[in-house]
Amino acid sequence: MNFLRLGLWLSLLILSGPIQANQGIRVLLPSAEAHFRFAGVYAAYKLGWYQKAHLQVELIHQADVHPVQEVVAARVDFSFMDTRLLWYRLHNKPVVALASIFQRSPYILLGLQHAEKDLALRLQQGHSLPLATDLYPLELALILRQANLLQTLRLEKLQATYQPLSTPGWQALISQQTQVISAWISDAPYRLLQHDAQAQIWQPPALDTPLYADTLFTSERFLQRSPQAVQAFREVTLQGWRYAVANPEQVIDWLLQDAPFLVQRSREHLRYEAQHLIPLMQLGWHEVGETQAKYWAQIAREYQSLGWIQDKNLQALQGFVFSQQTDVEQQIWVRLRPWIFASALGGFLLLLLLLYVLQANYRLRCEMRRRRDVEEALRQQAQSDSLTGIYNRGFFLERCRHQLQAWREQAPKDRLGVLVMVDLDHFKAINDQYGHPVGDEVIKKVAHQLQHALQPPELVGRLGGEEFGLLLSVKNLDEAVRWLHAQQYQLKTDPLQLEGQSITISFSAGMVAVQAQSLANLLKSADDALYQAKRHGRDRVEIFSG
Ligand SMILES: Nc1nc2c(ncn2[C@@H]2O[C@H](COP(=O)(O)OP(=O)(O)OP(=O)(O)O)[C@@H](O)[C@H]2O)c(=O)[nH]1
C-alpha cells in the first residue's frame, strides 16, 4: 500500500470515525425456492459475527417483494438477486454488486419425462411457460437458445408467455397443469423425487466464464453513506459462507431450529439444497463471493445478443461491481468532496477578502501619500518663499533663532557665527529697464547662487523684496568677507543672460559676528552695516563695528 492509499484510508478513518456502535442493517432474504442459499448470512448471524462487527442485522424474509425495488427505495440495505441484477443496473437502478455467492446458476427448466417435444411445441404454439419471475432470467434464455427455441421465439413472445403460477411450480408439474417449469436445481427436483415423478432437467449451457447467481447487492446511496458498514457486512457474510461450506450440518441445524421463515423444509430437503448449491460456488476455481466486472460485462454482452439492452445501457456497467479499494477511495472522495468544496469556497472567499483588504490598504496608502504630499506642500508653502524656493523671512528667522540657541548651548569649536544682510544694488533700475519679470529672474539667480554656496548649518532666506539674510559659519570675519566677495565676483563674471542681454548684478552686504546678542540685535546690527555699505557706494561688504 503506497503512502497515498494509506493517507486515503487514514482520511476515511478520521472523517468517518469509528463504525457506529450497532449500526442498523436490514437484509432482505427474498426466496421461497431455497433456504440454504442464505446459509452464509444465517451462519454469520447465528455465530454473532455481525454483532462483533458492530452491525445490528435484521433478517427479513419476504418472498413477495422485489429485492431491487426494496433496496433502491432504501426499505432494506442488502438483498440477493440473480443475473437480473445487472439488467436492472443497466436500466438505471443504482444497485452495486458486492459478492456473487454462486459462480454457476441454479436455474433450470424442469419437465416431466419426454417433455422436450412438448416444450418446443408449447412455446411455438404460443402456450404459456409458467415462470414465477417478472423478467426472464438470462439462464432460461440460454437454455432455450441451446434448445434452438430462441431462433423462433423473440423476447416479446417469451415475455408474453410469462404466467405466474398460483401453486408452486413443482405442484403444477406433478398435477400436470403444465409440462415445463422453471425452477432451482436445489428444490423442485427434490420435490419430484419425493413424489416418485421422473423429471427431465435442462441446465444452462456450461460456459467458460461464471454465470453469477445470487449476488449480494446494495444501493449506491447506502454504499456512499456507509462504506464501512457495506464492507464489514460483505466480509462477515462471506466469512459466514466459509463456515457454512465447512459445517453444512450445523447450519442446517440452525435453519431447522431457529429460522422463522422456514416453511416445509425437512433436514433431508436442506441437505439436498446444500449438496446442489455448494458445488455452484465452484470453490477451488473461485474465491467465496468472487464477482468480477469483466464477467459481468460478458453477461451484459449476452443481454445485448438477446436484444434485451441497447448500447447506451452499457454505460451503467461502470461502477456496478464493488471493488474494495476503488469504492473506498470513491467514498473517501464523496466524504472529502464537501470539505474540499467548502475549503475551496472558503479559500476563494478568503482570497476575495484578502484582495479587498489589499485594495483598501492600497487606497489608504495612496490617500496617506496624497495627504503627506499636501501637508508637505503646505509646509513648504509656509516655510519657503514662493518666488525663489528658499526660506521665507518668517522661517529663516525661526531657523536662525534655533541655530543661535544651539550655538549658545554648545559653542562650535574654532567656528564663528556671522549674520549677514544682502541687498541688491539699484534693483529698481533693473526692474525699470528690463521689466518686473526680469527683476524676478535676477532675484532667483542670486537666491540660488547663495543657497548652493552654503554648507549646513549655514542658512539663507529672502527677507523681502531684493533683500536676503544669511547665517554663516566661518573661522573668522575675514573668511566671511572673502566668501561674500567671491559671491559678488561670481555674479559679475557670470551675469544673467536673458533675451540676448547680459544683466550684471551687484549687491551690498552688512555683517555682524554672533556673540551673545539677541536675534533682533543681530539683525539691527547687520542692517546698520548694510546701510553703511550702501552709503559707501554699494557693491561692498561692511562689518558692524558697534
Ligand atoms: N521684480 C521685482 N521687484 C521687486 C520685488 N520686490 C521688490 N521689488 C522692487 O525692488 C525695488 C527696490 O528699490 P529700492 O528699495 O529703491 O532700492 P534699489 O533700487 O535697489 O536701490 P538701492 O537699494 O538703494 O541700491 C522696488 O522698485 C521694488 O518694486 C520683486 O519681488 N520682484
Automatic annotation (TrEMBL):
Signal sequence region: none
Positions of the GGDEF domain: 415-546
Protein name per UniProt: diguanylate cyclase
GO molecular function: diguanylate cyclase activity
PROSITE patterns in the cross-refs: GGDEF
Major enzyme class: transferase
Superkingdom, taxonomy of origin: Bacteria
This protein's UniProt keywords: Membrane, Transmembrane, Transmembrane helix
Family annotation (SUPFAM superfamilies): Nucleotide cyclase, Periplasmic binding protein-like II
Catalytic activity: 2 GTP = 3',3'-c-di-GMP + 2 diphosphate
Cofactor requirements of the protein: Mg(2+)
Classification via Gene3D superfamilies: 3.30.70.270, Periplasmic binding protein-like II
GO cellular component, one term: plasma membrane
SMART domains per UniProt: GGDEF
GO biological-process terms attached to the record: cell adhesion involved in single-species biofilm formation; negative regulation of bacterial-type flagellum-dependent cell motility
EC numbers: 2.7.7.65
Residues in coiled coil: none
